[in-house]
Write a structure and sequence with these properties.
Length: about 280
């Protein structure tokens, strides 16, 4: 009886907590709507897609794109998994009139917010909804990621970025995306991609229980933290990623910049960063 009462309380509390959180965020969103529109800041309840400080993370990545990826103001940029514009907003103040930004995402409401709030001020920033199936963010999507063709011409982009996209993809989807990235990059173009990579160092830190991500379950050629929802967090063996880059016509710009996620003392960012160049 006690277990039943506990389960009932738990089942009732979870939706109630979610409602109260949305109400709380909604009140603050209403209060600062004008300033948000001015600064191109999405509502707080939409910023739940992606943790951390929206502005600070975007600016930090812009520095990484320029300092390590070699992004230039005149580049044509593709943002794969553009979300609610966390990378687009800081790039809007960086790309020149000769530059261009294209982004796509599976979350329609995020794409629509960007179309309504960023594109009118920056006409060379374009956002596209990709109706790709995703268990968490687009469960009724009509297209499988493993068969999705990016809606852009061959060799169109100078720079392609993916932040925390391949950390939620299984191998068939990742392989298709990486081939598509190579296809739409011009020769000499650059891709900047974040991963969770497993190697001797990160695997050892996981075994010592120092990692924030516990990749202990092997599923179809990758590793996950939970079998119930494998795409919640996905890690790949470093040699597999190196081989896939080579097969895709992409040369890794050494070194790989390994992240802090597994408990490293020396790191550049939270996730591992692989920068590639199209041969």
């Amino acid at each position: 009886m006690t277990e039943f009462v506990y389960a009932l309380k738990t089942s009732l509390w979870k939706p109630a907590r979610g409602f109260l959180k949305r109400l709380y965020l909604g009140i603050f969103d209403f209060a600062d709507a004008a300033s948000r529109r001015k600064d191109m800041m999405p509502p707080r309840n939409m910023r739940l897609i992606g943790d951390g400080d929206f502005r600070a993370i975007g600016l930090a990545f812009r520095r990484l794109f320029t300092d390590y990826g070699g992004l230039k103001p005149d580049d044509r940029v593709l943002d794969v998994g553009c979300g609610i514009g966390r990378m687009a907003v800081p790039l809007a103040g960086y790309l020149s009139a000769n530059g261009e930004y294209q982004g796509f995402d599976v979350v329609r409401k995020g794409v629509e917010w960007c179309q309504e709030n960023i594109t009118p001020r920056y006409p060379k920033f374009h956002f596209h909804h990709a109706d790709i199936h995703n268990k968490d963010y687009n469960p009724h999507g009509a297209i499988q990621a493993s068969g999705y063709e990016f809606p852009y011409d061959d060799g169109y982009f100078d720079f392609v970025l993916l932040t925390s996209v391949f950390t939620h993809m299984l191998p068939p989807d990742l392989e298709n995306y990486l081939y598509e990235i190579s296809r739409v990059l011009r020769r000499g173009g650059t891709c900047f991609i974040t991963f969770f990579l497993l190697n001797e160092e990160s695997a050892g830190l996981i075994r010592r229980k120092l990692s924030k991500q516990n990749f202990i379950h092997e599923v179809g050629g990758c590793f996950t933290t939970t079998l119930e929802n494998p795409e919640a967090a996905v890690a790949f063996l470093e040699p597999y990623i190196r081989g896939l880059f080579a097969r895709s016509g992409l040369t890794i710009c050494e070194p790989i910049h390994f992240g802090s996620w597994c408990g490293r003392a020396r790191f550049l960012s939270y996730q591992d960063i692989v920068i590639g160049r199209k041969s």
